[in-house]
Amino acid sequence: MPVIETEKLSKSFSRNEVVSSISLKVEKGEIFGFLGRNGAGKTTFVNMLTGITLPTSGRMLLLNNNNDIDQIKHRVGVLPDYSTFYDHLSAKDHLKYFCKVSGKPAATSKIEEVLRAVGLIGHEKKKVGKFSFGMKKKLGIAQALIHDPELLFLDEPTSGVDAESAIHIQRLILELQKNGKTIFMTSHNLDEVERICTRIAIMKEGHIHSTGTMKELKKKYQTRSRVQIKLSSHIKKEQKENIKNLLFSYSIEWKDSMLLVDVMAEEEIPTIVHALSKEGIDIFAVHVHEPSLQEIFLRQ
């Protein structure tokens, strides 16, 4: 059963349609990456899902409830791109206060558990005004997690943090998924999205332009494969000419001892390897280049 489902969801401001008829499903337990250039409409779309903005038309269903946002707000956690905190409060007191105003107090043990999970244990009594940007990002995630939500919306969860903190947050996201949570995240870190997201949607000019797993997106956008073959560094000039004649039907390129061959299908690679072996040429490695998420994103 989908955790998020939209049907022809649209949003207009005056005569400007920012989100246009988006139909999307996110299944339970997914880490769903939602991408788009600035101005694509992704923030408006997420704001509709989280109840900040009302749609102009269409239908949406969160956690099998399409009527009352108030009924599901305690089942959903949200990390906005920029969180506002009370600088005079400690991290621990900030979470206590947040739980109080939200109407669902949390035990001290639960607060400490969440602070430990995000990597802030040891800093729980420190004033938030003295926190670094990365520590505030972790506190924002703690605030999203404090009620043990089923569904998490994370907007740029690792933007502006150091490499060690980014790795910690990525591992936390994977651990949350392992524990049955569903994560809907936006990020400009395409390497991060490619590494941890189970499915990805790319938005452009108010529409979903592409969606699928990385494997599906690579298959869709890869018209040919570039095979990198590492050979012996002692290849003679005449051997290179023989290889050129053997592989006359392929586009080939030499880079030192690396042979680059463009093929239409990976099934052609054994034929190429066999031809090289027949010439008595040692093959040390074969690597097939696939389009990265960054390359796919830039083609949109």
Question: Concise description?
Answer:
The protein is an alpha/beta fold. It is built from eleven helices and 13 strands. This is ATP-binding cassette domain-containing protein.
Topology:
Blueprint: E1 2-13, E2 16-27, E3 31-36, H1 42-49, E4 57-62, H2 69-72, E5 76-79, H3 91-101, H4 108-118, H5 133-145, E6 151-155, H6 163-178, E7 182-186, H7 190-196, E8 199-204, E9 207-212, H8 214-221, E10 225-231, H9 237-246, E11 251-255, E12 258-263, H10 269-278, E13 283-289, H11 293-298
Parallel strand pairs: 3-7, 3-8, 5-6, 6-7
Antiparallel strand pairs: 1-2, 1-4, 8-9, 10-12, 10-13, 11-12
Helix pairs in contact: 3-4, 4-5
Oligomer kind: single chain
Strand order of the largest sheet: 5-6-7-3-8-9
Total tally of structural domains = 2
Radius of gyration, taken over Cα atoms and rounded to an integer in Å: 25 Å
| CATH architectural grouping of the largest domain | 3-Layer(aba) Sandwich
Tell me the β content.
25-35%
Number of helices: 11
Question: Please, what is the CATH homologous superfamily of the largest domain?
Answer: P-loop containing nucleotide triphosphate hydrolases
Distance between the termini: 30 Å
CATH class of the largest domain: Alpha Beta
Task: Output the structural class.
Answer: alpha/beta
Q: Give the beta-strand count.
A: 13
CATH fold-level assignment of the largest domain: Rossmann fold
Listing every helix as H and every strand as E from the N terminus to the C terminus, the arrangement reads EEEHEHEHHHEHEHEEHEHEEHEH
The low-confidence parts are none
Summarize model confidence as the mean pLDDT: 88
| Helicity, as a percent range | 25-40%
Indicate the overall shape.
elongated
What characterizes the major β-sheet?
Answer: 6 strands, mixed
Protein name: ATP-binding cassette domain-containing protein
InterPro entries: AAA+_ATPase (IPR003593), ABC_transporter-like_ATP-bd (IPR003439), ABC_transporter-like_CS (IPR017871), DrrA1/2-like_C (IPR025302), P-loop_NTPase (IPR027417)
GO molecular function: ATP binding
Family: Belongs to the ABC transporter superfamily.
